Amino acid sequence: MSATSASWIRSPQWNGNCAWGPQSSLEGGFHICTTWLIEAYLAVGRLDDALELFNRLVALFGPTGLLPEEYDPGTETHLGNHPQAYSHLGFIRCAQLLELNLAKADVE
How does DSSP classify residue 82? Predict the structure, then answer.
């Protein structure tokens, strides 16, 4: 993953709080795509961007503390399967990677 790729992903496929998959005109943004963008930011050393996006994702958890499959930023509604295992797996992975990167940043 290059810095150019991470920037490209965010521009046309980005809408507020989520990254869009290939069917963006037909569906909401998939939370798993957002977690991939967080991972991409970490891979190219953009820790602040990764942390900001992660915090935005945390704010999208529903009242049950769970994530659905998709999110529509236009209507601010959850879409798709709820809860969605892939959304949670991506979230957990990002939490672990952020913890490692933040610890590493504190050492340096």
Answer: S
Cβ atoms 18, 26 nearer than 8 A: no
22 CB-near residues (< 8 Å, 6+ apart): none
Helix locations, the chain, DSSP H: 3-10, 31-43, 47-59, 85-107
Going by the DSSP 8-state scheme, the letter that residue 29 receives in this structure is E
Nearest to 30 by CA among 84, 96, 75, 93: 84
Residue labelled with tokens 């952020």:
98
**Percent of the chain having pLDDT more than 70?**
74
Q: Which residues pair with 15 in a beta bridge?
A: 18
Edge-to-edge strand ranges of the sheet holding 70-72 = 29-30, 70-72, 77-79
- Asked if the model's pLDDT at residue 47 lies above 80, the reply is yes
Q: Half-sphere exposure of 3 toward its Cβ, with a 13 Å CA cutoff?
A: 5
Q: Taking the model in full, what pTM does it have? A: 0.81
